Amino acid sequence: MLNSYIIKYAQKVTELKWLVAILAIVLVLFSAMGAKNLAFNNDYRIFFPDDDKRLQAFENLQNTYTKNDNVLFVIEPKDGVVFKPDTLAAIEDLTERAWQTPYSMRVDSLSNYQHSESVEDDMSVGDLYEDGKSLSADEIARIKKIALAEPQLIHRIISEKAHVTTLNITMEFPLQVENEQGEMVAADPTKQGMDVVSSVRALEAYTKATYPDLNVYLSGIVMMNNAFGEATIYDMSHLLPIAILLILITVFLLLRSVVGTIITFFVILFSVMTAFGLAGWLGIEVSSPVMSAPIIILTLAVADCVHILSTWLAEIRNGADKHTAMKESMRINFMPVFLTSLTTAIGFLSLNTSDSPPFGDLGNVAAIGVMIAFLLSVTFLPALASILPVKVKARESKTLNIMNGIAEWVIAKQKALLIGGGLLAILLIAIIPKNELNDIYVEYFDERIQFRTDTDFIVNNLTGIYYIDYSIDSKESGNISDPDVLAKVRKFTDWLESQPEVIHVNTVTDTFKRLNKNMHADDDGYYKLPDSRELAAQYLLLYEMSLPFGLDLNNQIDIDKKSTRISTTLKTLSTKQMLEFEVRADAWMTQNIPDLKAVGASPSVMFAHIGMKNIVSMLSGTTIALVLISLILVLALKSWRYGLLSLIPNLVPAGIAFGIWALIDGEIGLGLSVVTAMTLGIVVDDTIHFLSKYLRARREKGLGAEDAVRYAFSTVGIALWVTSVALIIGFLVLSTSAFKLNSGMGLLTAIVIAVALIVDFFLLPPILIKLDKWLSKRKTIAT
Amino acid sequence: MKMKTQLKLILSTMILSSVTLFASANAETPAAKGLRIAQEADASDTGFNDFTANMVMTLKNRAGKSSRRIIRIKTLEVANDGDKSLSLFDEPADVKGTAMLTFSHGLKADDQWLYLPALKRVKRINSRNKSGPFMGSEFAFEDISSQEVEKYKYKYLREEACGEGNKWKCHVIERIPAYKYSGYTKQVVWIDTQHYRPTKIMFYDRKNALLKTLVATNFSQYAGKHWRPAMMNMQNHQSGKSTILQYTNYKFKTGLSTRDFNKKSLAR
Predict the structure, then answer these.
(1) A60 at interface of B, judged by CB pairs closer than 8 A
(2) Separation between Cα atoms, residue A641 and residue B96, nearest integer Å
(3) Where on the phi/psi map is residue A319: left (φ > 0), alpha (ψ -120 to 50), or beta?
(4) CA A563, A566, A567, A568 torsion-angle sign
(5) pTM score of the predicted model
(6) How do B198-204 and A184-186 pair as beta strands?
(7) Domain boundaries, chain B
C-alpha cells in the first residue's frame, strides 16, 4: 500500500536524479526571483490591523493636527551649559539647518520659540533670541529665565537643569509622490524615513565637526522606525551566518559525513530562498518579525534532513549501496517527516489569528518554508545524495549505549519520575500567572542599537518619548475659545500634570494665559484664562497673525477651532502602567468633563492594547492548532486514547516553559504571545516520532510496555536528541537578536523545545507504562 | 568608431555654445526679461485708486473637515509704496467686528494693526513674520499682501499655454523673495501675456521642496482695465490642507481715501 508507493517513488527519484536535481534548482531559482518584490516596511503602525480602534483614533488625530512623525535632535554641551553665547549660536545655526530635513514641516527649538510679550502696550511676537553669539550676560540671563519659566519649553525643549536642549523636527510624509513621468504613485515610506535619517545624521556629523563641544543624541518616531530596520539588518548580518554555521557544525558532528552536511546546507539554503521568493510573489510585506523566519526555517529544515540522512548513512554503514539505502530511508521517514512538517506548518499558520499582522506574515512565511523544506527533502535531497559520491567509515555508536542507559534508568525510576516530574510540572505551570504583561517598546531594541542608548539618555536627562494625545472636541465651530471649555481643558491639564507618570503637558490653555497676560502689559495677575469667548478668540487671532511659517497653531488647534490637542509626555512605562494610566484618565474624564471626553491616542497605548488583545486571540489560534494537530495524531497513531494522551507531551512543555519564564524573566509581551502556537507544531514532532516507534513495538513486535520504551529509545532517541539540539541552537542564536520581539521569542522557544525533549524522555515513558492497561483497550481506527 | 563619436560630440558642443553666445549677445537676459514683465504687469494695474470686495474663505484639512471665514476687504492704491488695506471680519462670530489695517511695504516689514472689539482696543501686530498663515489658512500674509516689484528678483523661464482649458499664453517667471524673513526660497509664476493676469503660482519652501500651488480662476475685468479673479485655490502639497478664496461684489474707484485707512477707521 502506502509503503510500496513510497518505495516506487524513491526508485524513480534515484533513477531520474539529474532531472530531479536540475528541475528542483530551476524551480527554487524561479521562486527566489519573487524576492525582487519584497519591500521592507519599518513603520511601527504595521503592528496594528487597519480596523484597530485606537489606530483609527490616532490616524484621525494625525489628520486633524500637525503629524507626530518627528526626530528629536538632542544637544548636550560637554560643560553642561546651554545658556552661553557659543551654545545659543550653535542652536540657531542648527535650527536653520534642520529646516533642510526632507519632509520637515516644523522645527521647534529654543531659538525659534515664538515668545510673546507686551511692548509699549502692543503685543510683540518673535524668536526667543537672535544672534546668540553677541548676547550679553544680562540678555542671556533674561532668556534663560523666560525659557525655564515657559511651560511649553521646560521638560520638552530644555531640561530643568538647563544642561540639555533639543530641536524637535516634525515631518509630514506624503502618501503619494510624483515619479519621473509626472504621475502620482504611492510613496515608499521606508525610503522616506531613510532619507530623513541620512539627512539628520549628516546634520549630526556637521554638528560634531563644527561644534566639538556638543554631544548629539537622536530619537523620535522616525528614528524608532529606522531602528526596526537597523535591528533587522544587524540580525541578518550577525545572527544568520552564525546560525547557519552552528547548525552545520551540529549536523556534521551528528552525521559524521561531509556529503550529508553539504546536502543539508543546500536544502536549508534553498528552503529559505524559496520561502522568501514565494513571499515576494504573494506580496507579503517584510517587517522585523518576518525577518526572524530565515533562522526559524533553516532550523526546522535541518530536522527533515537529519531524519532522512541519518537513516540513509546508517544503511550504507550497514553495507547497503546508496540507492537502496535511500529507498529504505524514504520508506521509514517519508510519512513521519511529512506529518511533522504538516503539524509544524499548522502551528505557524495559526499565527494568522494574531491581531498583529506581521506575526501572521511570519507564520505564513515560516509555514511555506517548512513545507518547502519537506518537498526538497523528498526530491532534491535524495537526488543530490544519489549524485554525490559518499564515503562512510563504520563506527560503533557510543550514543546508542547512552540511549539504552537512559531507557533502563527511566524504567527503573519510573515511579519517582512520574511523581517527581509530575509535581515539578504542576508547580511550574502553577506559577505561570506570575508572568506580567509588559511591553516597553523602547526596550524592543537592546543597547547594541544606538536608538536605544540615545533614547535612554534623552529620557534620563530631558523629556520622555512616550506620549498620549487627547483631542478635546468641543462639538461646535470656534468653541475652543469658550470660557467653559477652556476651564475644563485647564482642569484636565492640571489633573494630568499632577500624575506621577507625566513629564510634560502641551496645552493651548498655557498659550491663552500667556496672551491674556501680554494683553495686560505683562501683568502676572492676568496669567489666567480670558473670561469671554470673544476675548479669547480675538487674542488667538492676533497671536495667529504674528506667527511665522511652520510655527502655526495647527499642532494644537484644528482649522475649525472646534477641537484642541493636549499632548502629554510620559515617563517610560510598561504596558501595564500605561493601561492603568489610561484607565485612570478615562475615569477622571467621565467624572469631571463627561461632555469633552476623548480617547487617548498614542503608539504606546496602541502597543499596550495589542499585546493584551494578541494574547487572547492567540489562545484561539493555539486551540485551533491543538485540535487539528491532535486529530492528525489520532489518525497517525490510529488510536483515540494515544491521541488524547499525546496532549500531555504536546501541551506540558509550553506550560512548564512559561513557568520557567516567570522565574527567569517574568515579562510577557507581543513577541511571546505567539510562542505557544508556534512551538506546538514543533514539539509535536518529538511526540510523533517517539509514540510511533513505541506503538510499532507494542503492536507489530508484540513487546510489553517497558520493552517498547526500550525500543523507542534505541530507534529514535538519538534522532530526537540531535534534532532537538539543532533546534535549540537555532533558536538560541535567535535569542541573541538585538530586537526583543525576536530574542524573547527565540529564548522561550528554545526553552520549550528543551523541556519537550525532557518530557518525552523522562515523563512520557513512565506515563505510558502506568496507563498501559487503559491505553491497550484499543479501539483501532480503520485506515 | 569611438573617435568619430567624440568628434561629433565636440563639434555639436561648439555649435551649440556659439548659438547660445550669439543669442545672449542679442536678446535680454532672463533676469532682465523677468523684471521687465513684472514691471509691465505692475504698470498695467496701476491707477485703480481703490477697490472693495467681499471674500469667503474656506479651509479644508486632510480629514476632509472644512471651516469658513467671511471678510470684507478695502484696498487703497499708494504710489511709490505698498498699498494700504483694511480687512473686516464678519465670521466666525466670535471675531466679528475685528478689523485689520495693513500698510504694506516693499522690503521693510509691513505695518499692521488689529482692532479687537472685545478689548475695544487697537493693537499693533509687532512682528516681522510675513510668512505665517493668514487666519489659519494656507495663505501666508506675503501671499495676499500687495505684490510690489522690488519684493523679488526675477528670472524669465519660458512661454507656455496656461489658464482654464489652456486657452491663454503665459510667461513663466521664477521669482526669488528679497525679503529676509520670507518663508519661501522661490516661486514660479504663470502670468498671461495679454493682460498680465497671474493664473498660477507654485511656492517652494526653505528646503526648496514644492509646498503649495495657487490657482486663480474666473477673472473679470473691472473699471475697463483691472483684472481680478473670483476664485483662488491654494493647495498645500505637504500637509494635504487647502484654502479656497471666493470673491464677490468687486467695486473699483469707490472714492476711498487715506482717511479711511488709519487706526481710528479700524473701530468703525
Answers:
(1) yes
(2) 84
(3) left
(4) negative
(5) 0.81
(6) unpaired
(7) 40-258
C-alpha cell of A599? 480617547
Residue B65 touches chain A, beta carbons under 8 Å: yes
pLDDT band for position A52 (cuts 50, 70, 90):
confident
Q: ipTM value, please give it.
A: 0.82
Cis peptide before A174 (omega within 30 of 0): no
User: Counting beta carbons within 10 angstroms of the beta carbon of residue A230, is it exposed (0 to 12), middle (13 to 18) or buried (19 or more)?
Assistant: buried
- Classify the phi-psi angles of A167: left when phi > 0, otherwise alpha if psi is within -120 to 50, otherwise beta: beta
Of A122, A557, A561, the CB nearest to B126: A122
Q: Does the pLDDT value for residue B231 go beyond 80?
A: yes
Nearest one of A343, A372, A447 to A692, comparing CA atoms = A343
- With contacts defined as CB-CB under 8 Å, which chain B residues touch A58? none
Q: DSSP letters along A634-652, please?
A: HHHHTBHHHHHHTHHHHHH
| Pick from A395-404, A406-415, A743-752, B195-204: least confident | A395-404
Q: According to the model, what pLDDT value does residue B3 have?
A: 47
% of chain A residues with pLDDT over 90: 32
* Alpha carbon distance B16, B21 (integer Å): 9
Q: Which listed CATH number (2.50.20.10, 1.10.340.30, 1.10.150.910, 3.90.226.10) goes with B40-258?
A: 2.50.20.10
Distance CA A8, CA B118 (A): 97
| Strands laid side by side in the A502-506 sheet | A502-506, A563-570, A466-473, A600-601
pLDDT over threshold 50, residue A532: yes
* B125·A534 Cβ contact <8 A: no
Q: What does the alpha-carbon distance between residue A169 and residue B181 come to, in Å, rounded to a whole number?
A: 20
- The CA distance from A68 to A465, in Å, is 11
